Fold each of these.
Amino acid sequence: MSLIRYIARRLLYMVPLLLGISIISFITMYAAGDPITIITMGKPTITEAQRQAIRIYYGLDKPVPVQYLNWLVNILKGDFGKSFTYGGQPVRLLIEQWFWPTVELQLISILLAVALSIPIGIMSAKNQYSKRDITVTSIALFGVSMPTFWLGVILIIAFSYNLGWLPSAGAVGAPYLWPLFGIENPTLDHLAHLILPVTVLTYVSLAQNVRLVRANMLEVLRSDYILAARASGLSERLVIYKHALRNSITPVITYLGLSLGAVVGGAPMTEYVFNWPGLGRRFVDAAMNLDFPLIMGITMIITIMTLVANLIVDISYAFIDPRIRVE
Amino acid sequence: MTKQEKTKAETASRRSASQWAVAWRRFKRNRAGVAGLIMVSALVFIAIFHNLLALYPARPDPKAFTPFYKGDTAKPPSANYPFGTSAIGTDVFSDVIHGSVYAIYVGVLVTVITMGLAIVVGAIAGYFGKWVDNILMRITEIFLVFPSLLLILVFVRIFSISAGGGSWQFLGITVPPGLTIVIFILGVFNWASNARMVRGEFLRVREMEFVQAEKALGASNWRIIFRHVLPNILSSIIVVATLTIAYAILLEAAVSFLGFGDPNTITWGQILQENFSEMRTVWWAEFFPGLAILFSVFGFNLLGDGLSDALNPRLRE
């Protein structure tokens, strides 16, 4: 019962946050001045009547507060408006088209990163300041310092251009892009396209995760209850994997929640370098063209996903740790 | 000044000096931290003496395109061009050397803005608590939830279209207004997590006995914040600021790489952007600028981690 009330409270609490964010993203459109000048940029011969027609098409003829309310109500109905570019197609259609490639890329990388980071982080913390620990922490810090896009560029130069092993761009390709095995299998081809971007994304988030797991494990291993567990003669394996692990992975869950939200945002840089047909890549284009309906639509989707992921994280905390519910 | 006051002042200064001396001694033992310090010093050295180290002057000086006029566009690394020449006919080595100035400029300015905002918001929220804290933290949350890189791109694009104002000199390099716009936007979108940290530290220190004692003595809020709480959380602020410099350099490189930077500002990210479509032929023009970014960011991160270990010895054995 109290859990349901807790969830309801968290849901209510999301409403002002969402409203605030929607207002800010809407105002952004007017930060650049009249949107009509952006739509008609590069078309100096356009007549006033045509301008008016475009205004009506996008609903820009109404007062700004009315526009905002219309936009908000339409979002609740699942309509995100029409894009300024892409021939004025509905934003929702465009997002749906780019959504899955991004989710695929991100989910694989995040799951890989989490699965690898826990054992590596624990191993590193268990042997603090050993050679292995120092190697792991240095490689992890190196990963945190790595410009993602540059790593992608270097991998493309090495594995696509020099060795010719893997395709350099896109999600599917003409078979000649991948001459190594000469197999014309669409699934294998797609997998080959995934390898490089997944490597980049996994390495970067693995680096962050390992640092998190290690730091928290170190903290937990110093607490009294671990001392007690050890004093009562439990084996080291039991102490670490049963008692310490539980408390030390909560920050990983938090991180997972945040990154699940970011799944939709994609990693714009990685998608840009590998020309991945996902949301992140398209957002960069949308920002370049100042295609506000698309920008606002993607921003709202990412925000909602982030909030939902955070909610799931909070609820799972409440399951793991009943103390949180009381607060 | 009476004699008593004098000794008091002396002990105070001696005590605070020794606290930092202890941290320095601890820092010196940390090899990774020292390596970071050396890397950062090297970067600063290169930035100060960039005009002596580079082979060709910085753009927009037309002499920067000397390789182009000699017909040496897109040449691989050689004795004449240590890092090769770019697709548009500049010496990559010189571009990278001059780029260090921008890296420092971006890193420091973004961090000043970020930490300034973070300290103001975090201090007010953490110290005054109650509804003030509640409102400020809700605003902070909005900034945390926002997909910040994406919004940074949008804002950079909006403001660079209408960019005006003058450019000025920094260490002998022209800083166009476009870069300053990027810096402000990066600062404005990155303070939220640091503000949370500052707030947390304020909450912790606020409840300490010496602050309670000071309150009981009737000290003003400002006096408590500036004379008592802030000095006590200075070490955390220094650590976070160092890591923020690293992050800022990385973010600016990303913004420029994606093509949103000022094309007149030859930052490392901009060099990567200029040669991105030609990377198949001029791999050196992609490799070396990226290496410079990695070197600087790694240096600041190592330094930050080292400082964190030295100033916060709780996690040491």
Note: The mean pLDDT of chain B is 84.
Amino acid sequence: MDKKKILLIEDEPEIVRVIKYNFERYYLIHNVSKKEEALDILAQHKYDLIILDMKLPLLEEGVATFHQIRKDYSKIPILILSIAADEPAVRDLDADALMPKPFEFKNLHAKIEELLNYTTNCTN
Amino acid sequence: MELDKTKIIKTITAYNRHRLIITTLALTFAIMLSFVWTEFPLNLLIILMGISYIGGIICLLLAKIEKVLVPLLYFPRIFDSFLTLGAVYLTGGIESFITPVFIFIILGAGIVLGLMTAMVLTTLISLSYISIILLEHLGIIHHYHLLPIIGCPYDSNFYTFWLLGLNIFFFYVASFISGHLSNIIKEKTIEINKSKYREKYNRNFLDSILTNMADGLIVTDVDLKVQMANLASQKMLGYTEEEMKNKSILNFIHDDTFPILLQKAIKENQLTSEEIEIINPVDNKKEFLTLKMVSLKDAFDRVVGVIIVSRDITHEELLERSRANFLSLVTHELRTPLSSIKAYTETLLDGVCDPKEAKEFLEVINTESDALSRQINQILMFTEMDVKRIPLRRKEINLSQLISELIDTSKTTKETMLEKMAFEKEIEVNINIQENLPNIWADYKKIKTAIEHLIENAIKFIPTGEKVKVEVLKSGDEIKVCVTDSGPGIAKDKLSHIFTPFYQIEDPMIKKVKGIGLGLSLVKHIIETHAGKIWVESDVGKGSSFIFTLPIGR
């Protein structure tokens, strides 16, 4: 079976590296650090899941990115990974899953699996 | 008693002026009379008038050369008694019909000059009267009958003295009545003036309180039409009193609960209050106000309007919000390095096969822990300086030594954070310190933090392979420290925000760097608490210079 494709929108290289290190054996992970790049790559490739990072001083930008992707690619589930998961602006988004940072890989993996299986079941 | 010299001079001058007019008129009349009546002693009259007038001038001169005494005021009156003496003598003593005229003179004097002066004048007139009669009776002077009252005999001694006594009695009665009347009038006038003054004072008093108070005060009638609005309220609402006058206050304060609370104040007589948020139409800025509303009552306890007191709490509100924001930002930002630490630790615990990779992961954890520790230190120092205001621990500082502790370019080993950072990014750091630099009197730890942060910032924000220059020199009474980089520079519109807490430049040219954006505001804080100045000079594409000055000596 082909690996599921995940788009990781995250600009912290250390986090990207460690996520890739842990999950590359299960998924195909593409990383972009900016909204524009994300929209470009989404237009070219089909993804099964989007992991979106949101940080505080740029929360509005993150929220805008979320809405843009939600609008254009409503079928792709979005997992928000954020240090500001407890902020109302983030909490109130209708993201498919919310993962606060710092996170545990075990939990993140479970969330990813849950989202991927759900979409798989739906499409089947 | 303190003498008011100008007042005395003024009184005497006025008195002399009147005397001049009266004397001239009397003299003209006497001269005309002397043509008809050859026996008329014109020379005597001229002498008497002369004495009186010269006396007045002497008084004036004495007053002017400042040998002033209060009795001097009465001197012209003493000289005037000579004039009275002459007039009484010429008109024919008690049987003259000129006698009642004296009553009018006294009445006039009493009203114009007051009780005291009228009494003095009356006494003088009476004395001169008595002395004339006595002199005539003793045969020393001749009796004239210039203006006799028909049927009034002069010969009877008893009658003469009885008439004299009666005359003098009337003089005093006239003097007392007029003087008293005058005093009452004067008191009333003073009272009226006083109450006018008091009223004006009260108005000014209220006006200045209303104008200068920091709280806004608006008075409306029961229909909520603005009757009065003080300066503070005009500023808060952004309308002038003229613009608001006789218009409903609801046109100027838009808030859902405000009309309800106003009605409550009017109908239920309650003191109501609320916090509102408005946009000031003058600068379109958001304002936070607390409003207190209370009914205004008239003398019969009827509600005639509402008093609205407003207080601008924008500053407090924003401060409160920025504090809350600060806390939220700080706690969230600490999670960034913590996330990396946690992720890498977990990965390592799960087992990493490649030892090289494992070491790299450990290095990430190490770097992120350092970052976390620095952030915590910054926050601590920031709150320490901003909130607790802990005094500086000053000592003599040799800047050359301080900088060499931070970064030593002569060494080959890379020990300090700055040395490591520069080495990793292949950045050449040039340090140029003027020789024989005087020591400064400052807080060692804080100045070190400030300089470290400026150099760290320069290394962080410029691309690999660029250069950083640190210059320290004496400039007048100050030490000037410049940290210059050859990086991308900062756009003009961003320069003004650069020292604002949590501000980080969002620029595609600048690689995203870690940090919570507290550093530069902390540096500014440190330099300013040392009575120094800090600024930044930058041009896009040409690099940036962070420059600060510190005073030399204690």
Note: Chain B touches chain A at residues 328-329, 332-333, 335-336, 338-344, 346-347, 350, 357, 361, 364, 368, 502, 504, 506, 512, 517 (CB under 8 Å).
